[in-house]
Amino acid sequence: MSLSVVVLISGSGSNLQALIDQSLKGKLDITIKAVISNKADAFGLARAVQANVPTKFINHKDFSTREEFDSELQKAIDQHQPDLVVLAGFMRILTEGFTRHYDGKMLNIHPSLLPKYKGLNTHQRAIDANENEHGVSVHFVSAELDAGAVIIQAATEIAENDTADSLSKKIHTLEHTIYPLAIKWISEKRLAYASGKVMLDSELLPETGIRYHQDLN
Fold it and tell me: 202 falls in which pLDDT band (50, 70, 90)?
């Protein structure tokens, strides 16, 4: 049975497009029930419409507190009864109650090799710290920002001439590979989550998840 998914976005939706493309190619057995954005002009909404996926816009500025916005967002998500909620560039700090409601059922992708560089401006921070490599992590969402259990990471070398922009482009390519892969494992029931721990094929993953290589499937 196809894994039902709701995707939350705030911007271009390139990771959403990667999921749509993988699904259309038959490489990912998911049904995207809806795409929800807190930004009316998010290009990801147009991507969803093009793929005949229902969309919804909920303006966070219409709510006086994070709790009120998250409550409305939760109602919109739960109408679809998804197996999984996927954050794909959703630029909102979520409340503890919201994250608890979707514990073990909500994923995020973060542009760093967690636990390094939580938060924003990760590419420049990695360059400024003279790191040799930088990367991206897919993780379950917890109440603490960018601190949930990591499923998979992918890394790239930081070249001498790399800028935040050039590094961002490298990272996006990795994102579009490992996010669908993590969701594929969930759809195939190979991935299990319990009490903040992740198991793949019944083997406990390390705190930094599994490191991506081309032989993974």
Answer: very high
Is residue 216 domain-resident?
Answer: no
Catalytic residue flag (residue 110)? yes
Long-range contacts, stretch 123-128, CB < 8 angstroms, 24+ apart: 123/164, 123/165, 123/167, 123/168, 123/171, 124/164, 126/158, 126/167, 127/158, 127/162, 127/163, 127/164, 127/167
The answer to whether residue 107 sits within a structural domain is: yes
**Alpha-carbon gap, residue 45 to 39, rounded angstroms:** 9
DSSP conformational letter for 62: G
This prediction has a pTM of 0.96
Catalytic residue among 80, 101, 110, 176: 110
In 3D space, the residue among 208, 181, 187, 193 whose CA is nearest the CA of residue 3 turns out to be 187
Residue 170 within any structural domain of the chain: yes
217 belongs to a structural domain: no
Amino acid at site 198: V
Structural domain including 53 reads: 3-211
Q: pLDDT tens for residues 172-186?
A: 999 999 999 999 999
